[in-house]
Amino acid sequence: MSKLSYLIIKGVVMNSEEKVIFETLYEKYKKIALSKKEMSRETGQSISTLDRLRKSGLGCSYIRQGQGDIFYPLVELAKYYVNATIKTM
């Protein structure tokens, strides 16, 4: 399934900034979700910080699969990056 097919099926709505970030991340990783280790490398946050943020209900949205494996969808990471950006005038 292509990345665009996945987004159409899931009904994901992204603004233009989010689309650019998503496509950049997709080209880099060639998949639609990152493991905790990949997320740590991408964001520069330690795995323990990601765990703490997740348990506090902060940080990027995630999905839990199987025996509790955590993955961060690129769509959510793109939205997180856009929302975390401080815009100056």
Condensed summary:
The protein has helices at residues 3-10, 16-29, 36-43, 47-55, 74-84; strands at 33-35, 63-65, 69-73. The protein has 89 residues and is α+β, with helices and mostly antiparallel strands.
Account of the protein in words:
This protein has a three-stranded antiparallel β-sheet with strand order 1-3-2. The protein is globular. The chain is built from five helices and three strands; from the N terminus they run H-H-E-H-H-E-E-H. It has one domain. The protein is an alpha+beta fold and 89 residues long. A hairpin with a 3-residue loop joins strand 2 (63-65) and strand 3 (69-73). The chain has helices spanning 3-10, 16-29, 36-43, 47-55, 74-84, and strands at 33-35, 63-65, 69-73.
